[in-house]
Amino acid sequence: MRREIEHAALPQNLQAFRDFIEKACRGAGVELSVTRDLKIAVDEACSNIVEHGYARRPPGSIGVSFEANGEKVVIRITDRGNPFDAEDAPAPDLDSDWRSRRVGGLGWSLIRKLVDEVAYGSDPKTGNRLTLIKKTSHADPGGGREED
Asked: Which of the listed CATH numbers 3.30.930.10, 3.90.1150.10, 3.30.420.40, 3.30.565.10 matches domain 2-88+108-135?
């Protein structure tokens, strides 16, 4: 089963990406716990693109594709915003008192905890691509495409 969606990188479109993941997971028979983890991971990634990827530039688009093959769900998030290397992201401060921590900075750590594999690549010609893979034993390899 493969589905795709694309919207402008605007805060008001984040709900559409969450809804897309939920509907695609439901259609593929993905269990609720995996669906929840994927919705949070996609929301965090898309929020980062909206906030940082297109910072100081007009918002472009974010594309999200969903594939389920019976053993795993693969989500690819694409954009043409500023490139970002997740390996360069500072480790989150989880040790100090929560009242003295800066707001934010937990996104990449959260994404890595919610999915089984994360891969990121950036190319000046094709843009940025974040791939999130989550193992599941309940996906149904059907077909389908959803457009916005």
From this structure: 3.30.565.10
pTM of the model: 0.82
Query: Please, what is the average pLDDT of the chain?
Result: 85
**Cα–Cα distance for residue pair 135/133, rounded to 1 Å:** 7
Distance of CA 21 to the CA centre of its chain: 9
Taking the domains of the chain in order of start, what are their residue ranges? 2-88+108-135
**pLDDT tens by residue, 84-107:** 866 666 665 555 555 554 555 566
Confidence of residue 109 (pLDDT cuts 50, 70, 90): confident
**What pLDDT was estimated at residue 1?**
79
What residues contact 47, with CB distance under 8 A and at least 6 apart?
A: 11, 14, 107
The span from the CA of 4 to the CA of 143, in Å, is: 12
16 CB-near residues (< 8 Å, 6+ apart): 5, 7, 148
